[in-house]
Amino acid sequence: MKLSVVVPCYNEAKNLPHLISRIRECLTRPDCEFILVDNGSTDSSPEILAALAPDGSLRSVRVATNQGYGYGILAGLRAARGRYVGWTHADLQTDPADALRALDCIERLGCPRGLYVKGKRHGRPLADVAFTVGMSIFESVYLRAGLWDINAQPNILSRELYEAWKDPPHDFSLDLFAYYQAARLGAQLERIPVRFGKRLHGSSHWNVNWRSKWRFIKRTLEFSVRLKQSFSRA
Fold first, then answer.
1. Is 97 helix (H, G, I), strand (E, B) or coil?
2. Pairing assessment for the beta strands 32-39 and 115-122 based on DSSP bridges
3. What is the Rg, in whole angstroms, of the alpha carbon atoms belonging to the chain?
4. H or E segment at 161?
5. What is the pLDDT of residues 115-165, one digit of tens each?
6. Distances from the Cα of 51 to the Cαs of 10, 11, 59, 127, 227, in angstroms?
7. Is the peptide bond before 96 cis (omega within 30 degrees of 0)?
8. Where do runs of H (alpha helix) occur along 36-154?
9. What is the mean pLDDT of residues 27-56?
């Protein structure tokens, strides 16, 4: 198996049929798999996943109780079989096919071991772009690494980089952790342009208003301090 893509799904019942249909459209290679993680959903997501993603190259993993975005991704990564592993979102704001485009990039480069391929978003509202720019500048300066558009999807990395992780976070800080870890290890970073659209159904679980953004900022800053300290001790 060359590529495993994890998609954490929390109460995405309305989106799941569209997501699964889109994955089936783009999943044309036998050496790739998508793992949909029911991340402790309380809606009808478990039943939908059982019916529409039963096994094989499109399968699901169940987390009984939601313990965070990162926790769901880690559960999926533990089940992954690919030489390259990664994740993307379930809300269809980014196309699942972007992960396959990342694999095309990997193969053009000769499938190096220390490779990290990450999306670079286009088409976002100006306020969200400003928020991203501010966070990117702060994290890059504070952590002394070039970290741009940290929460862009997909995130695809070699298994060697993934297996070097120690104590990854269980919340939205996982994107920052993976990106920073790759930078510190001197990984080769490639960015692919991705179109960022609107959710089909529901709303973001964190990007709801400026109050929710502030809570996200506060958690990210606290994690950044711990992250810098952990690498300083290593």
1. helix
2. unpaired
3. 17
4. helix 159-163
5. 999 999 998 989 889 989 999 999 999 999 999 999 999 999 999 999 999
6. 17, 16, 10, 39, 40
7. no
8. 45-52, 69-79, 97-108, 126-143
9. 91
H or E, element range at 42: none
Q: Which residues make Cβ contacts (< 8 Å) with residue 185, sequence separation at least 6?
A: 114, 161, 164
Nearest to 195 by CA among 87, 92, 84: 92
Cβ(153)–Cβ(98) below 8 Å = yes
Residue 42 CB-density burial (10 A; 0-12 exposed, 13-18 middle, 19+ buried): exposed
Q: Which residue has the tokens 């809300």?
A: 91
215: enclosing H helix or E strand = helix 210-233
Look-up: residue for tokens 């952590």?
A: 143
Q: How far apart are the first and last CA of the chain?
A: 33
- Split at pLDDT 50, 70, 90, the class of 200 is low
